[in-house]
Amino acid sequence: MDTPVITLAPPAPAETRHVHILKQLERKLLWLSAWMIHNANHIRPNRDGLKVGGHQASCASVISIMAALYFEIARPQDRIAVKPHAGPVFHAMNYLFRRQTIEKMAALRQLGGVQSYPSRVKDGPEVDFSTGSVGLGVAMTTFAALMADYVRLHGFARPDLPAGRHIAIAGDAELDEGNIYEALLEGWKHDVRNLWWIVDYNRQSLDSVVPDRLFGRIEGLFRDMGWNCVTIKYGRKLQAAFAQDGGDALRRWIDDCPNSLYSALTFQGGAAWRQAVLADLGRARGVRRMIDALSDDDLGALMTNLGGHDIETVIDTLRAAEADGDQPTCFIAYTIKGMGLPFAGHKDNHAGMMTEEQMESFREHMRIRPGHEWDRFEGLDVPESEVQAFLDACPFAQPLTPQGRALTAPVVAVPAALPMPKAAGRKVSTQSGFGDILAEIGRGQGELRELADHILTTSPDVTVSTNLGPWVNRRGIFDRHTRNDVFRDAKLASAQRWGMSPKGQHVELGIAEQNLFLLLGAAGLAPAMTGARVLPIGTVYDPFVNRGLDALIYALYQDARFLLVSTPSGLTLAPEGGQHQSVNTPLIGMAADRLASFEPAHVDELAILLRHAFETMQRPDGSSVWLRLSTRAIEQSARTLDAASVVAGAHWVAPPAPGARIALAYQGPVAPEAALAFAELAAEEPGAGLLAITSPDRLHAGWLAALRARRAGDRGAASHVERVLAPLAAGAALVTVLDGHPATHAWLGAVRGQRVVPLGPDRFGQSGDIPDLYREYGIDADAILDACAQALLGRRA
Length: 797
Ligand SMILES: Cc1ncc(C[n+]2csc(CCOP(=O)(O)OP(=O)(O)O)c2C)c(N)n1
Ligand SMILES: [Mg+2]
What we know:
Blueprint: H1 13-43, H2 56-61, H3 63-73, E1 79-82, H4 87-96, H5 102-106, H6 120-123, H7 136-153, E2 166-171, H8 178-189, E3 195-201, H9 214-224, E4 228-232, H10 236-242, H11 247-256, H12 259-268, H13 270-281, H14 285-292, H15 296-303, H16 311-324, E5 329-334, H17 356-365, H18 384-393, E6 427-428, H19 430-442, H20 449-454, E7 455-460, H21 469-475, E8 477-478, H22 486-489, E9 500-501, E10 506-509, H23 513-524, H24 526-530, E11 535-540, H25 549-557, E12 563-566, H26 585-591, E13 595-598, H27 603-616, E14 624-628, E15 634-635, H28 643-648, E16 650-654, E17 660-667, H29 671-684, E18 689-693, H30 696-711, H31 720-725, E19 728-738, H32 743-746, H33 749-752, E20 755-759, H34 770-776, H35 781-793
Parallel strand pairs: 1-2, 2-3, 3-5, 4-5, 7-10, 7-11, 8-9, 11-12, 12-14, 13-14, 17-18, 17-19, 19-20
Antiparallel strand pairs: 6-15, 16-18
Magnesium ion binds near residues 171, 173 and 205.
């Protein structure tokens, strides 16, 4: 029979026009994303000869998914993480919605232009989540969904904002990242809802084609975690073909086709498909008839008609899931990397780019006239007014609020001083001081009430050992469902009362540190995402900041605001083995942007810094805060501190005489050794000073800022560290000591040209007690005195 082989039931006429416009918009996204990258690499002047880069193939594979989502399914209240390499598609979509400018797109990957990967801070309020470090943006949606629930269940949600979904458009290689599975487990524990992950399953990563059947495994994992898993495998053309005589055999053949062969045939095109299919199925009459009736081009189009490229299939699938309820859902959308571009399917196409000639014929194919490459409606076969009306009617085009997508929240008042535990004359550690202060805030008395209500604490299985226990006893554990504390009900003695309820204020996490930082990131973005103020505090053992570091940097990169309390820290942890004894963390604190890091030695300093943290994390020009604490109990004295100096990073415990030849500076729990050494030093050098450093990070940042300001002509600019060191003689020596890498202080010598002898461990720690370890690593009183002698003797000693 010569009847057409592929017959699709004609859609309703109104739908036809609708779908036609959607397909025109897909063309537009494909063109604009490819052009944006081409322009950056081939058209724009290149001053340094460096490859600019961009990912045309990664953009091409996700076009239909993003068009279906943004032009049809998404609502303004949905928060969406876009896979990093689809940044240009995202910007093109916003451009069509008049939320992005040609100037910024033309400056892709240039200073002031759109970033290579979507960035909340640099690209503006349309970006819900920054992405770039693969896996993190995807997992972040889980914690943002949790936070949306938290805010709603605590009655903080804005009444004018409907609840939204959290959606990640993920590259398939992102699911190789371990943090994805950590987040899946945690999401399951917290019964997270209204979460969609749409995987652009192009079966290619950067270097290679992914192993066959891998996703069978991954699908199983999702299901085990309570997710609904929907595969969007075939488009309508293929589905129609499968319904024909021979269709079953064809489907089996495609199902069994290894990913790498499928990719290679896609790249080679129709003739190669014909040869390969007929080699296996040539004797199957139905298949033969089907294939023979098609031109090479049509055959190529049929064989690559995967679900993720069929916008109607994608829309239908998402709609069906929407109707299904709020269960987390993973969509595995089969796609082809580079779909519609000359290198479609080629395994090396990740950073591949169309040549000038290829771009020229692509331009013609897209019916774009030279000089009209950026025109919004160029090359479309639908009248502009009709496309515009279509865009205007898209749900996602409606503004979320009159202020747009980036929301703000009212500031929570912070009392002038936080309650201080009665410490004078006692030995107290900063860690227990922290627990005490927080527990006192947790009473929620008087002016502390509002502050207490807005704090959210979290910890990856170290809640009790970081001293959050008393706070949790007062404020309860957050859970979407009320659950009793079984031990308490059974009247079994325990210091912890851990009832769970939707009103609880502590999110108890499993031990995975990346989840801690993703949650702090999501909670720290709650004002922008939900319009509600949450003051997040996360506690973790100091050495394991390293385990979550990428997620910490990721949270900061998005300008999430939170307080990180890391404790215990350093060698001072003594009997715990070397890997628990952090050495590098003070340097991380100095080098991390949008994070002010402190290490108080005494509880009075801690109270000042904690108060400062609550304030600065709410200020638009503020930052997140990190407090590095210790379990070493040290003697506290009654004294009056200058809070501004503590916050600025240093204060004199014993001010030096003008022109003093030496000062001793300490940071954190080595304070007693410093005091002991100082007593001896001062006997020899009566003018010597003793400086408490509370933040090498703030001192350093202030110094750099002053240098910059002076270079810019502000001759009077001065920093705190310059003022602090000013009384010392020009050639004075400085001995510094901390329980952390000595490079943390070594730079101090550059401020006024002073000699520094920096003390601190620069090797892995080991088990021991404090006297042994401080001696072994050269931070005990004797070592400090030796360093003072060396410093006084001069440069070559
Ligand atoms: C944590 C991290 N490691 C490595 C990279 C470098 N990198 C960028 S994209 C990519 C592969 C992405 O593949 P996939 O997620 O499948 O995206 P697509 O195929 O859609 O481009 C890699 C390894 C990165 N961005 N982040
Ligand atoms: Mg991929």
